[in-house]
TrEMBL record:
Belongs to the peptidase S9A family. The lineage of its organism: Bacteria, Bacillati, Actinomycetota, Actinomycetes, Micromonosporales. Residues 12-422 form the Peptidase S9A N-terminal domain. This is prolyl oligopeptidase. Transmembrane segments: none annotated.
Amino acid sequence: MSTDRAPFAYPPAARLNLVEQIHGHRIADPYRWLEDPADPDTAAWSQAQDELLAEHRAGWSERAALRDRLAQLLAVGAVTAPVWYGERGFFQRRAAAQDHAVLLVIEPDGAERVLLDPNAADPTGATTLDWYYPSPEGTLLAYAMSVGGTEEPLLRVLDVATGAVVDGPIDRMRHTAIAWLPGGEAFYYSRFLAPGAVEGDDPKLHRRVYLHRLGTDPDTDPLILGDGSPRGRYFMPRVSRDGRWLTISETQGTDPRNDLWLADLAASPPDAPALRAVQQGVDAMTHAHFHDGLVYLQTNRDAPRWRLCVADPVDLAYPNWRELIAEDPGAVLEDYEILDGPALRTPVLLVATTRHALSELTVHELHTGEEVAKVALPGVGSLGPLTSRRDGGHEAWFSYGDHTTPGTVHRFDARDNTVGLWARPPGAAAVGDVVTEQVTYTSADGTDVRMFVVAPGAPATGPRPTLLYGYGGFNISLTPWYSPMAIAWAEAGGVWAVANLRGGGEEGEQWHRDGMLAHKQNVFDDFHAAADWLVASGTTTPGQLAVMGGSNGGLLVGAALTQRPQAYAAVVCSAPLLDMVRYELFGLGSTWAGEYGTADDPEQLGWLLSYSPYHHVHEGTDYPAVLFTVFDGDSRVDPLHARKLAAALQHATTSGRPVLLRREGDVGHGNRSVSRTLDLCADELAFLTAYTRRP
């Protein structure tokens, strides 16, 4: 790769002569000092990186125009599908000028009213509404807000009619779910332990399930499940709509399997439910839903693409599960709703599936599972979660979107199997001549992989600047959804490609497992093959090809740039995991060992070392231009990963292309304000534009 500009000086970074012997491997860690953000040397180095970024950003001539266009595309706002409890509906909507969506309630007479407005609560945009759960009757609302991206919220309960807070705050509520009992007097929830409760360990990694009665001290709530559970357990309680059945799903970190517990609340008291195992020690995921005296079990047990079974909750032995919707060998069962009520002659199942990451919707007879209709969708794209009335009925709602269509909300009517528009986003933005196609390419081991390609509608006269995006992990599927970045890039003449790599969920659980643990290299091979296809097809050239990913996708592009630096001109690596030897020691890293493996195991350490980006940087290499983006409030993936690899690349690269670090305060890994998103995306696109213009 040729030099684009004269060499420049990077901020000095001491290289430690630190080498450890771990399971027979000599592992160097020259930048371990950058793990501590409070160290004065780390702070000085970070400040110098801020100044270096500002110097380069001043030369990104197209940033202002890109920011303006992104602002127009984001100004469409957003709207979500409603959830219905009692006679009230709850949904979120964001107007063009708002940083965050507002939670609204639909009253029985159809009038809408603002219930929670994070923008009013904090005009700085640093406060986010993390989640909310209405009571079964729609009279109360449990909700949680957090500040600065920490995702460590306080739970409060408000009276929906008056807006008054009637309970809370309750702390230590990260990553929980609320399961209300009928009447709204109590709910089940999970909470991590108090500081100092676990000697020598982070209490945030230890959770238990409790029952909370409104108006009582949460520290006296009765323990329901989890006493003595190991670190990294997550719990998801649910109560059936008739209040009789309690289920609790228990997982170890992000492992792709769960234990499932069931209690009959008619036969045991709510504060001491007699829990029995539905599934325990089984290498599969199963979720339960109760209807009309039966339990419906959505499971990938003996069905990697998922299926739906039904059983009597009194006897839930696996041989007694009756298959209702069989596994489709070409599609993944994603969601379903049971629709009933006096307006229907017979109750039905509304079933959402994805076929190669594109959504389909079908109607089935409830008792036999027989398909009776295919539902016409608004386009070829993705559906959001299905919702229906908690108390039953013939209606369902869902969101629809694709790469160039903002998410709209639609209402399905089971009386005639029709779909009608329920809500559009409040704003509008004209999209230029941009088209999307899905292509199939072959990975290194012969596996077919699919990719979405968003491009200008006008025929190409030659290779174009191209951005390849991927994730490839944790069973997360990259399905089409409205993307202002993709649109702005394509309108400017570029190609935006999204690869559905192994490790994701696009083709079911086996697709996921083919990209995790010992098979993680498959993900990187799929990504390299996508890049090769884009070049071989004439879409782009290595000098015009950039890659981007965040979180696990940051690991992906970190591996891509260290394994094949010559293949890519520029890289955006956001909130990444990069030191895979020490990732378990920080943030939530220890809960991901089921996905990556653990350095405590000699064999698994070998897997991690084989691709860990930080450990595969070689001096004297022409590395691509790299922009790391990190967030100081990130409590999932510590910014230390980006600091360490940035320092290593700045020391090693000979290309003359910059390695830059962009950091932000008061934001975290997930939810963030639109204004902060706008500036981040503008910087990323301007950086990519600056380094993908030559053939």
